[in-house]
Amino acid sequence: MSDAINTLIHDLRNPLNNIAMNAELGSLILHTDSYDKEKLEELFAVIVRQCRQCSVELERLKAAVDELAS
Prior knowledge:
Number of strands: 0
Radius of gyration: 16 Å
Order of helices and strands: HH
Low-confidence stretches: none
Strand content: under 5%
Shape: elongated
Oligomer: single chain
Largest sheet: none
Helix content: over 70%
């Protein structure tokens, strides 16, 4: 079962890395002289999607941990 948990943790890292990357990119864009509002909106949409994906993965991880505990 630890392999399944390791897989779930790996699956969480992917959206978290994307969230961090898009937040950093958004910050860089925001601090330019003429930033692209549409690009920022796209980045925020990606961040929201990835946060939702993290929530799904956390639920899967919780279920796996609960299964191990029983």
